[in-house]
Specification:
Largest sheet: 9 strands, antiparallel
Number of helices: 6
Order of helices and strands: HHEEHHEEEEHHEEEEE
Structural class: alpha+beta
Strand content: 35-45%
Number of strands: 11
Distance between the termini: 20 Å
Shape: globular
Helix content: 10-25%
Oligomer: single chain
Mean pLDDT: 92
Length: 200
Amino acid sequence: MLTVQNAQTALLQHANNNSINAQQVQILLANKSVTFANIVYCTKVATSAKHKNVNIVKVVSANVQLFANITAQNLYVQQVQRSANKIANNNTEAVQNFVAQSNYFTHNANCYSLVTHKQTLAQYLYAIFNSAQSVYFINNVVATKQQVAQYLTASASAKLLQNNNTVHNVANNVQHSVKVRTIALANIVSITANKQMLTV
């Protein structure tokens, strides 16, 4: 469980400017196909232009699936199809024909969950989220989602406050519940997996 105290500790750890590197992640995942892990990370929340001087940070603790030696480049498609088939109002043909859109990253040949930005070469952790908890801070003070929402654009505010656990992929007209995130390695405070913990 992510408590306010744990979140504050994560912020302090993140502030030391150390980061977990790709080699450490690769060793941690130990060449296993799927690894269930817990990750803790901090990200700056983008505000609307009129609130650009407000500092909002989100600390997340997430239970995720990470992948080392997966070779199927269509892993995401398979996960979406499995999820979408459980949702009654999806068109069966649309689900079967689901096509993933191109991404801004490429997967590491030696560890599928390590990805590199095609232009900046920044490294990220590719993870499928099972569950997550967040704590928000506005100018270093704990805040609710509702308090954070007032500093965002209208669309970002609506997205933050919605409680729908499904995603509607407009390009394929398919609803599913697969949540993939790419988290900058520089933002990760800790990864716990295979009875080991990496931390900054």
